[in-house]
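Standup notes
- HV: blocked on the assembly model, inputs below
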Amino acid sequence: MDIALDRALRVFRERGYHATSIGDLTAAMRLATGSVYKAFRDKHAVFLAAFERYVALRQEQTRSAAARGKNGRDRLRHVLLSYVEQSQGIEGRRGCLVVGSAVELSAVDSVVGARVNAQLKTNENFIAGLIREGQADGSIPGHVDADDTARLMICITQGLRVVGKARLPLDGKRLVGVAMKLLA
Amino acid sequence: MDIALDRALRVFRERGYHATSIGDLTAAMRLATGSVYKAFRDKHAVFLAAFERYVALRQEQTRSAAARGKNGRDRLRHVLLSYVEQSQGIEGRRGCLVVGSAVELSAVDSVVGARVNAQLKTNENFIAGLIREGQADGSIPGHVDADDTARLMICITQGLRVVGKARLPLDGKRLVGVAMKLLA
DNA sequence: TTTATTCGGGAACGACCATTCCCTATTATC
DNA sequence: GATAATAGGGAATGGTCGTTCCCGAATAAA
């Protein structure tokens, strides 16, 4: 069941919501039409389930990237690095479902819109938390505004996924090196 | 003709490519089905024409924003401010066709993909040019890497459009204030 | 063994999609 | 004034979409 959802997730990430047909879904999930409709109310429900799963997986990746850092500043650096890596190559081309949903559905589908908003807020709070952590442990100067900086960093991460989807090469070290100036 | 294209542009920006039907297009353009197919080979051609128009209009806006600055650094600040404003409110919710195309089509449609890439590159070069201009006139320190900084700023601008589509409030002054640290 | 029950598969259906075709005004040409 | 050419409008078409319905096999209950 979770593995079927992973396969659906991949198709939604690659093609977006409207461009993936039930036929694409059944082919990817290796399930017949009837079986999909036994497990989910409709296409929208499959998408929502895939979205939840994606968010959970990504959250885990981000937390574990943060855990690799030795203080607030370093944790934030690892998080940004992880974002750049996720935005590159095959994974980058596959795209981010949050970004995709924001762009394709947010304005039209209020349910998806709410989930997207919630996820952006969660990420923003997580980053702001890391900044405050860095300020507490002395690795980030106290005059940095945690909220404003976190919001800008969210823009950076979302933008990375857009640029990565367009196949522009992204050099993690250099890009993150520049971005860390925001903590000066 | 250009006004019909503007109306098509609006629909494509709001709904994306796949979610706008020929019916939506004819309704928005106030043209019958046959007339649309007289003027354009197919839906894809309408989209491409709308894309070209959008890019041209946006380019003009960005250049005029830059012209409001008194030196390289100030011109860049005005460009960023203009991006934040475009990403807010009704215009923000309407979305950016370049971002939308990158996310929805870039991976699947090589023609659109090429145009998106070209546009991102153009924007990046423009920003890099402003940075070098600022370094020449003394408003930006010479040790700033123009290319890396420009690429990161492209991520910021693209990310702003994503976040704006999700209706998160964006404070131009504050956000740009933080972003200008990248020029330190 | 017989009978219920579940579950995956896939044909069938109505709606809507992009596209084509044709008709009718309107304009330009002679 | 007659005729050719053009442009807009909209009905018709073939295909595909999302969804429903029903069938057959496998399992559980009796």
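- HV (later): unblocked. Residues 21-23, 33-34, 37, 42-43 of chain B lie near DNA strand C (CB under 10 Å from a C1'). DSSP finds ten helices and no strands in chain B.
- Next: hand off to the docking folks.
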